[in-house]
Amino acid sequence: MGNKPEPLTESYFYILLCLHEQPRHGYGIMQRVQELSDGHVRIGSGTMYGATANLMQKGWIKERKAEERRREYELTDAGEKALRDEIERLRHLIAAADTVTGGAI
Amino acid sequence: MSEIRIVKDPFRPWYWEAERKELDAASAEGWQLTARTKKTVEYEYAPAVRYRYAMDYRFGHREEQYLPFFIDAGWELVNWQGNAEDCFEGRWYFFRKVYDPELPEEEYQIATDEESQKAMLERFHAGSKSDRHGNRLYHLGVALPALCIWHLVDGFSIECILLILLTLISLPFEYYRKQCLFHLHPKKPNPRAYYRVLALTIVFVVLLFATSVVSSRANDYIYTKEASPAGTILSFEVYWPNLYTLSLRAGSFAETTVTLWDEDGAALRTETGTQLSFRETMFLTPGTYYITTCHPANTDPSLHRYFTYKINVGWQLLSNSY
Q1: Residues B239, B220 contacting (CB under 8 angstroms)
Q2: Rounded to whole angstroms, how far apart are CA atoms B158 and B14?
Q3: pTM: predicted TM-score of the whole model, two decimal places
Q4: Angle formed by the axes of helices A10-21 and A77-101, to 10°?
Q5: Does A58 reach chain B within 8 Å, measured CB to CB?
Q6: Which residues of A1-34 are buried (b: 16+ CB within 10 A; e: fewer)?
Q7: Between these two residues, B157 and B96, which has the higher pLDDT value?
Q8: The complex's ipTM?
């Protein structure tokens, strides 16, 4: 397997991206994902809850002490790295595609 | 006063998609879900509004963190069914959202990617498995005190086998249920139910052993005194359960040979000496046994003093007939 990171799912990628911008609470992430993807990606509440639980378990995001009852999440260093790795991976894919198609597609 | 409709025998939990569709259809006809129990679905007639429903299955989660994800997104919690605190089975949540035809279909879905849909299935299977094993364990919990009482009232050999079987069966149940409860949320399990039932099971198993020992001692113990110039057998005890302990003390100032014979005349144990005392654990099958005492030089069996003991089928009762 090596150290090659696994590709992120679309939901995870968007969640990490939103939290890279600023710490947000769950619904804030859901709204921002919708904006960023021009409404193409919508994350349901169940998916969002499960994703935050999984990402926290991976150590990519953590809860922030919020004054409200609602919990805010922020990116950890490991999460930042996972996001960077994924962006790098996507850049490589695009670069490979451009090499083959000459940017025609 | 609004009209109420109660539907009995609703969908089984594994048909949650079918149930969700039925709730949506009922809402379109004006019947809005107000409560869902294990065996009933309750609707109220309110045709002015139309809802879309979503169901989610959870266990071992923290509700105060879970619900805001839904409430913020415009979902209303109608009802939950099941029990997450004592999580043998998880909890089904029934959410609803006012239907707006302008909004895309994804707006009414709570699991929007393949991974979370798969996770829901996994949760459901793990929860159902946990529920099944939990129920079996509860039945075991009912069976154990009954066995305890049985022990005290009447000793019977089959209970020993039953006890071993039940213990053996309960161990894998325990293991799998633990797997179920801890598998999905390894860092934040909800193990209260698990430890409570485990403690209960241990208490009953201990009680069962205790009662079996008490009942067997009460029935089996026999103490025999017989004065004899050739030796005195002071005690011959057989204890249940497991192996029999032959505890034999023969008192005589003269040299004496004490022999334990089985029904076929085979000597199982022979000791010679004065003030004999030996204690040995050995397996004695039900049947008749003889103990003879004589002077070592006395080879005429007719002059031997003998004692007969019978161990009955239940190996509970030991009687003598000397």
Answers
A1: yes
A2: 40
A3: 0.61
A4: 120
A5: no
A6: eeeeeeebbbbbbbbbbbbeeebbbbbbbbbbbb
A7: B96
A8: 0.88
